[in-house]
Each structure stands twice: as C-alpha cells, then as structure tokens.
Amino acid sequence: MKTTFRWYGEGNDTISLSDIRQIPSMHSVVWALHDLQPGVVWPVDRIQEVKDQAAEYNLGIDVVESVNIHESIKLGTPDREEYIENYKKTLRNLGKVGGVKVVCYNFMPVFDWVRTDMAKALEDGSTALFYEVDKIEGVDPYELVENVKNSSRGMTLPGWEPERLEKIEELFKAYENVSEDNLFDNLAYFLKEIVPVAEENGIKMAIHPDDPPYPVFNLPRIVRSKENLQKIVDIIDSPSNGLTLCSGALGSNPDNDVPNMIRTFKDRIPFAHIRNVKVFENGDFIETSHREQDGSVPILEIMKAYHEIGFEGYMRPDHGRHLWGEESRPGYGLYDRALGIMYMIGAWDMLEKLKRESKE
Ligand code: CS2
Ligand code: MN
C-alpha cells in the first residue's frame, strides 16, 4: 500500500508540499491541473512543472485526480469525438513526462459530489460536510449552487468550477433525455477508446463512485452499487479499466458492503479513498473522523480487506472535518486528513505486524 495525499497545486492550496512531506508515510501527491477545463489537453510543460515541484520534496505524482470528463462525452453528443481525442492526448502527455500510474475520473452528470451544508457543527465543535435528503428533494439546484459558491471561501471546488456553473441550466436540459442506460453506453464508448491508450502509457484508469451513490435532481447516476461496478469492470477486462473505491461515497448508502466490494474487485482497484460518514435513519449523512466508531462505515474491516488482498495500490484519506479553526477548502483541510492517515497506517502497520508474528 502506498500512502498519498491530495494537493491542489501551487497557489491553489492552503497546504504546501512541505506540510505534506511532514505527514508520516507519504509516498506521493494526488494532483490535477485544476485551472484547466474538462476537454482541454494537458500540456507537457505543465505536467513536468508539477513533477519537478513534488520531486523537490521527494514526493511522486503517481495519481491524478482527476482528468475530468467533458459533458459531451457523458451526454454522447457528436462532438464527443474531439474531446475523446483530447483525453487521449492528455494521457499520452502524462505518459511522456512519466511517473503517473493512475488517473482517477468520475462520470457524474453536471455535479461532482453534492452536499447541503459545507460546515455543519459536530458535537465536538468541529465542522463537516453534511447531506440532508429533504433539503435536496425540495431544493432548487440553482440555489444549491449559490450556497456552495458562498461557502467555498473563494476557492474552486472540483466539479463546481464557475465556468461549469454558468452553463447549468443548459446542462440540466441536455440531460432530460439521458437515461441510466444511455449514460452507461456513453461510458462504455469512452472506455473502449481510452483504455488501450492508457495501457500503452502505463496508466490505470480508476472511476470514482457517485457521491451520493443515487440519482440527485433527477440526473442519472450509475457508479453506485456492486452490481454496477461489476458491469463497469466487465466493459473491458484490463487492469487499466479500474476503480477508485471510495468508502465514503459508497458508504453513504448502507446497502453498499464496501469490504465485500474490495474482496470482489481486488485486482481492479488501483486507488482507494478512505473516508467515514455517519448515516442517519432518514438517509441524511455527515462526514466524521476516520475512526470506525465515529461513523457508519466499517473502516477497520475495510483496512483488513485491503490487507487480505495484498493491496499494493494507492490509498488516500478522503474528506476530513474542519478542525482547530483551520481555514481550508471544504473537506480538504490538513489536520483531519493527517489524523486520518495516522489511523489508516496505524491499522495497516498492526495488520502487518500480526501477519509477521503469525509466521514466526
Ligand atoms: C471526492 C471526489 O467526494 C469524493 O469522494 O473524492 O470529489 C472525487 O475527487 C471526484 O469525484 C473524483 O473525480
Ligand atoms: Mn472519494
């Protein structure tokens, strides 16, 4: 297992590479060129620049999260060809610079993750991202957009880029006639084009589950259950057609058995997100510390499952709470994610020790 930490880039993150270097066990950063819109080719010199910056701190750039998918690819409109070509060029450029082994992406229409409150107070005085079912059912998506903009502290959130939000009305209209089956076909079309190029460049594509893992605002969502993940890995039987198994995104639906998914898809998971959420009876959920007892996701069983399958991929702590007055991008402060890492590697190191001792 290789431990990683998400970094939004020089000048775009309150957390520096020097901060990240000081977290125990760091192998590499999870990064992206966040200023580039979906559909744009990532230039070699920009990729090289990040590689050099990270190398100065002895960190790799092994995982990209994400090279985002242009809406035309998800919608399956004729201009997708151009954007698929551009995606291939980006993969080739990543291959040219070298060092990138995994590209995470998602296939969620219009929005990436959705929450109704970016700073809900927990009992201990920290704040965290909160999702309220009733609010979403009653809410006008445009209002939610305003709410997100106002609480993002001036920083862009992945999937909530201002350029994308400007086109929101148009996008909702475009998806009116797109069913889950259509979306699935469009994903299959994309993967059949992309996976051979990823293979040639030593890259594993890793799709991130939908967050939350069910349709919102009547937009179709397909990356959300064991059955659907199976359909996705079956599209092409290649290690380059893989999964980002996010325990938080999947875990906010109690029907999803994440340890079972890890054991089932074991050789198709190049990238693991570890996050805990507490799910309430009415379906609301709040993000908590990574500790198993604090939420509804069986984090220790998840670590055990990864250990059991001999996981050699990349793992990162996903969203954390906002602690000790830190002014961070929602969900992406330094403190709680660093605490999360210590929990993850604490569990991992103990599993390794027990395994060693059982052989003695
Ligand atoms: C995050 C996502 O919500 C999450 O779990 O990890 O924002 C993730 O970065 C993207 O969906 C991946 O494309
Ligand atoms: Mn995630």
From TrEMBL:
Organism of this sequence: Alkalibacterium pelagium
HAMAP family linked: UxuA (MF_00106)
UniProt KW Lyase keyword: yes
Keyword Ribonucleoprotein: no
Gene it is expressed from: uxuA
Protein's name according to its UniProt entry: Mannonate dehydratase
Reaction it catalyzes: D-mannonate = 2-dehydro-3-deoxy-D-gluconate + H2O
Family according to the record: Belongs to the mannonate dehydratase family.
InterPro entries linked to this entry: Man_deHydtase, Xyl_isomerase-like_sf
